[in-house]
Amino acid sequence: MKVIKFRNRLVLSAMAGINDHSFCSKFPAGMVVLGGFSVDEESMEASKKVAKRGRKEFIFEDPIEGVKAEIEGLIKTYDGVFAVNVRSASEKGYLKTAKLVGDYGGLIEINAHCRQPEFIEIGCGQELLKDPKLISIVEKTSKVCPTCVKIRGGLSLDYKKLARELKEAGCLMLHVDAMVPGGNADFGLVKEISKEIFTIGNNSVVDVYSAKKMLESGAKLVSAARAVLKDERFFERLLEDELLSSHTVLLIN
Ligand SMILES: Cc1cc2nc3c(=O)[nH]c(=O)nc-3n(C[C@H](O)[C@H](O)[C@H](O)COP(=O)(O)O)c2cc1C
After folding, report:
1. How many structural domains compose the chain?
2. Residues in the chain with pLDDT < 50?
3. Does residue 42 form part of some domain?
4. Ligand 1 atom closest to the CA of 17, numbered from 1
């Protein structure tokens, strides 16, 4: 039995074009998520289109080499748990990245979350939530790398069933963006999914109260993205709280 140790409950959530190694290593979070990265030719073409219309994206000539350089940069200065958020149009892209990330002791985070049309068109991001391909990807990546899946709430899906199926396929962790269209986070969804699997609760965490509410809903970890862009010391402020600064572990069979 292996153990992943988290020195506190905080996670820096993925932000494409922003979460490179130097950005991620600035934060005292127990886990940071590098990327999102597009790791095969087709998804990289989609990234280029997205960048062309003004959104931040990581553009690499050779995506696998690009991800490798980011991991090597990160582990020089950051000693917490890291994950790499990944989009790919092919199973091969996920598998190649999983092998790489596994070799460096990280987790792969399969992006079943992104909803930019350029990624949806090629079957990436939240499109995977409707596709049995997701299970087969997880079955393969989890053999070579601890696997997390980032999902989005607010869709008409049986989330409990999805969580069970992903767990059975080898997924260790679900990163749940519990977004409610036009609203706050859906803590009920976090509660429901956390009964099935180890979760990271995400969306609209802006202070100690909202971060603790994620944990009280059953999540083991809590992540933030936008709040960190607003305040670089956001995690330091959360770490003043006893529960948020407490360690936890994830057991791997
Ligand atoms: C600029 C930006 C880029 C993002 N890029 C990604 C991404 O590449 N992959 C991903 O899974 N989520 C991405 N997200 C979503 C965040 O990780 C997070 O799930 C979402 O912003 C809700 O959390 P928050 O309320 O703490 O911001 C991005 C969010 C922002 C603001």
Report:
1. 1
2. none
3. yes
4. 3
Tell me, yes or no, whether 171 lies in a domain: yes
Q: Is the CB of 151 inside a 6 Å radius of any atom of ligand 1?
A: no
pTM: 0.98
Pocket flag, ligand 1, residue 146 (CB < 6 Å): no
Long-range (24+ apart) CB contacts under 8 A made by 21-24 are: 21/70, 21/71, 21/72, 21/73, 21/74, 21/76, 21/77, 21/78, 22/73, 24/74, 24/78, 24/82
Q: Which residues contact 12 (CB under 8 A, 6 or more apart)?
A: 19, 24, 27, 29, 31, 32, 33, 223, 224, 225, 228, 235
Domain that holds residue 68: 2-242
CATH of the domain at 171: 3.20.20.70
Residue 249 lies in a domain: no
Of 177, 234, 235, the one to substitute when testing ligand 1's pocket (max ligand atoms within 8 A of C-beta) is 177
Q: Which residues contact 122 (CB under 8 A, 6 or more apart)?
A: 42, 43, 46, 89
pLDDT at 155: 93
Rg (CA), the chain: 16
Considering the domain boundaries, does residue 251 fall inside one?
Answer: no
